[in-house]
Amino acid sequence: MRVLLLVLLLLSPGPAQAHPHVFVEYSFDLLFADDGLEGLRIIWVFDEFFSSLLLQTYDVNRDERFSPEEARRVDREQFSYFRPFNYNTELFLNDASVPVPAARDFQPSVRDHRVAFTFTLALGAPRQREGTLEVIVDDPDYYFAMVYDARTPARAVPMGRAQLTCGRSKERRSAGLPSRWGSPARFAGSRGWAVSYLISGLRLARLGKRPKSRSADHRWRHPIRRQRRAG
């Protein structure tokens, strides 16, 4: 029980008979600085069975929350496992592949008796004030079933910093995510979620204003002006 993922891998069949053993709902937010997109925050929520294993192993005092010491153990013994596999994530910014950096700000938590992992992927410079970020979260071996949580659409953080338009991305037929078995990816191609963004004036966005027109691909093309303060 010390390393749950390792135990599950040892009990699982080979890649030819692969089927999901762990189910994960994921969502993400886009993080903005004044000069553009700086990264994204990803949230994974595990199924009840795997969550119960995590809680039995790491929630020592059974209070359904992770103390700093317990969180460090989860990071060291569970979350670090995903680093060689790029956290089951591929990123494309304006159609160009983006290297997946080492995650930061990892924090496990409990939501309705289900364990959630929250972490940040910081994108490198130069930052861009307008563009489209595609996020593909998948396990090529289908050991983890990664399902997008459509009930939690992507948000701009800080709130109102940018206008977002979210939709399905086009199919990607790249080399794909690393396989834990050293075999080719299960899928010839994968689709994720694409978020078009445009930095906007904070005051304007908070008032819920929208441009009068938009282009066919749903990206806001014209500049958004800050409202002048009364007086």
Give an overview of the whole structure.
- This protein has helices at residues 4-11, 48-58, 68-77, 202-206; strands at 22-33, 36-46, 89-93, 96-98, 104-111, 114-122, 130-137, 144-148, 156-157, 162-168, 193-199.
- The longest helix is centred in the N-terminal third of the chain and has 11 residues, at 48-58.
- Mean pLDDT is 78; it is low at 9-17, 183-188 and 202-231.
- The termini are far apart.
- Strand 1 (22-33) and strand 2 form a beta hairpin.
- The strands form 2 sheets. Strands 1, 2, 5, 6, 8 and 9 form a 6-stranded mixed beta sheet that branches. Strands 4-3-7-11-10 form a 5-stranded antiparallel beta sheet, with no helix packed on it.
- It has one domain.
- With 231 residues, the chain is of the alpha+beta class.
- It is built from 4 helices and 11 strands.
- Helix content is 15%, strand content 33%.
Overview in brief:
With 231 residues, the protein is an alpha+beta fold. The protein has helices at residues 4-11, 48-58, 68-77, 202-206; strands spanning 22-33, 36-46, 89-93, 96-98, 104-111, 114-122, 130-137, 144-148, 156-157, 162-168, 193-199. The strands form two sheets. Strands 1, 2, 5, 6, 8 and 9 form a six-stranded mixed sheet that branches.
